[in-house]
Amino acid sequence: MERIEPNKLTENFFENISNEWMLITAGDKEKFNTMTASWGGIGFLWNKPVAFIFVRPERYTFEFLEKGDYFTVSFLGMENKDIHKICGKQSGRDIDKVKETGLVPHFTEMGNVCFEQSRITLECKKLYSDQIKKEGFADPEYIDRWYNTHGNFHQMYVAEIVNAWI
């Protein structure tokens, strides 16, 4: 993979996140987990390039996100949708996702996990975290649609993109 300055990325992250999906990975060489996500974004905040992601507390990856200061966001391309399906429906508590999917882990210089199959990887340092709150919704329809029958409110993470690879 080739390192690129985050502000040089020309991707359409609206398309990438919503249709291609992404893997959120946290942990280290000893133990890590990855999950598929299709909610999040890329932007500019506090004079830094940032990624923001949303993870429910019941997800196994949440435990790793809470313990560490870094995570990665990887885009595998549409040709790897089967990997995303497994990583989105199966828990790392129950299966070895690397073994089940054929993902090949690669470790960054900082010790964070990405995958050889990734066409884009963003290495992110957590800056802010907070749980989505019922009282913060301007339209209660979103609570009914996404939370009353789907689980706990998401934890939101805002993170500086410290490295990017293509």
Could you explain the architecture of this structure?
The chain is built from five helices and ten strands. It is of the alpha+beta class. The protein has one domain (3-165): Pnp Oxidase, Chain A. The strands form two sheets. Strands 1, 2, 3, 4, 5, 6, 9 and 10 form an eight-stranded antiparallel β-sheet that branches. It has a two-stranded antiparallel sheet with strand order 7-8. A hairpin with a 2-residue loop joins β4 and β5.
The CATH homologous superfamily: Electron Transport, Fmn-binding Protein, Chain A
- Just name the CATH architecture: Roll
Structural class: alpha+beta
Q: Outline, from the CA principal axes?
A: globular
Tell me about the biggest sheet?
A: 8 strands, antiparallel
Helix content: 10-25%
Mean pLDDT across the residues is 95
Weakly predicted, low-confidence segments: none
Q: How many individual domains?
A: 1
Highlighted features:
166 residues, alpha+beta, 8-stranded antiparallel sheet, two-stranded antiparallel sheet, 10 strands, FMN binding
Provide a compact summary of the structure:
This protein has 166 residues and is an alpha+beta fold. It has a single domain (3-165), classed as Pnp Oxidase, Chain A.
